[in-house]
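Re: Re: token formats

Sure, here are both.
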Amino acid sequence: MQQKFQETWRRASTTGKHAATFLRPRRTIVLLICAILALYLLYKVPSKSVPLESADSLLPPYDPSDTKDNIAFEHGKPKLQLLIPATSSNPELCKALLTSSILGYEAPVLINWGKIFADTNVNYNGTKLGKITGVLKYLESKQPDLDHRLVAIVDGYDTWFQLRPEVFASRYGAINRGLQDVTHVRIGPRAVEQEGLSQKIIFAADKRCGPNKGYETKVLCYAQPESPLPRYTYGLGTDVLDSEKKLPLKFRPRYLNSGFIAGPGKELLSLFRQAQSKIQLIKHNGSDQHIFNEIYGEQEYQRAVMRHRLETTRELFVNLFKRLFGMTGPSALDRNPSHIPMKWHDGHPLEFGIGLDYWLQLSHTAVLSEWDGRYLTFNGSQDEAGAESPRDLQISDDILDSAAPYEVLSKHDDQLSNTSWTDIPLYTNLWTGSIPVSMHMNGFEAMREAIWHDMWYHSRMRELLRGRSDTSEIGAFADTGEWLPWDTLCRGTEKEVFRDSLGPWSVSAEI
């Protein structure tokens, strides 16, 4: 039966230059009859199912200016637990700790803290693959406490936070619902319902499949679906390689980036167990992102298999007609001489509920997007940078409804504590219109150094840390449970972190 499904799909999925095979004279009459029948079924026969559509026809999964939402968990709205893989401290790690602290996030847990990875074999790169083994060990040690908590895993040496944890939680819920809707369109509600598919884990989105090159023919790259962002997000040059730099600068984010991961602890535990199992099974060049790309690509390939296996007779004819006339987008199952297929599975053994943050609402991936964002204010004043955007840029309600940016200074500066989010410069993507919760500064190092002082809190970081220290300690936990105060972690980094000449920061020094 599986071979029959596969052969039927290969014949039906043939497009482009292969379509000539279907249009031989001896088959013309049969094809015309199929086309007429498909048209009749498509336009005359009502159906509650959703036909397969191209990514271009998909509406955005949600309005980026309307993200006010509640996180969808069975046990209410949980607190956010930050996990940061880091073996030692430096100024970049301290920027991540500082920005999360002043915005009100709980103290993060440093995964693999103090650990030395002696194995220098690139295929077992401890600083990358240790992220998988270290996070897995921690999640297993915290069962079942973290099962229903929202857990976020971020790269520690190039991540800055910009917005509060309540905005994070709100967007996590909104993005998941939007991605669930997109899944219904892509593979059909029948497959979603019968297989019990549920969107739970969100990764950051990237413009290219990486970091390893030469895998375009493998499932880990070609099976990742097209971006649901509008077809002309970057104008007429959208998805066209830059002619000068030969880089995908105007590509819509489509591929998984493992620098940001968020989901319930229980689901993340299953995902990281799968990731660890692949360390010894596949060639990954020491890259955790390569492994997660393969897991996501396999999930999406098998989702296409589910759709084909569970589509109705009506859907089969309709989709056949659409494919013959180029009315639908590509599928992971399309016949392509350069694509290496994988085994078809029954059920959903490779399903992990993974989706991507296409709109860059939770994490802005900087690589290949260094020129996509600007610092903008939203108080009605003219801004030349904002004028570059084709979108009507607005600040979203979830930001406005969160605590004011300087609210922790109410005891020290009443006037400053009343400053609104519309009065401060926020890093904004000009093309998606998103104001990200966090920024993954994995692009040019020179850019990361140049714009650090432009973050809205930079000129008052010492005051904000002092205000936050009134209600909580400043620092992080090692994954062993040891408390690591700010002075232990970050003394000696002040010149780069604060960029002033006031020396070390401590609670006593600020009183």
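Second one below.
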Amino acid sequence: MGNLCSRSANKPDNFTSPGRTLSSAPPPRENPRAQVPKGTGSHGRTLGGGVPEGAAPRRAAGEGDARSAAAKAAEERANAAAARTGTGKLSRDLATQKQQTRTNTLDNMSKDERRRREIESSSQAREYN
């Protein structure tokens, strides 16, 4: 049927030309990788490593104090959070619910159901009158 949208100005297909041989390929680049940028000359440090050779150990002023102060503050926050829990109504209700056994829970449910039925029957009796 032919190509309806074709123009004579379209470029020919890549594979219609005869191509080239391996010997006619451009020569490969000498260094195909990107160059490594020049640094400042320092070799850097390995994380977790010790002190570089010939250097004295450096410690920030008050580093030990800051670390111990942070640990103490975290401990105080944990103690305060533990003291806050268990003081509200919901936490008391949860504690009592956790203490109930299966039989206690079923007994409470049956009592509630009996009360509901009793209220319903009394309301029906009142509506009848």
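The mean pLDDT is 77. The chain is about 45% helix and 0% strand.
- S.
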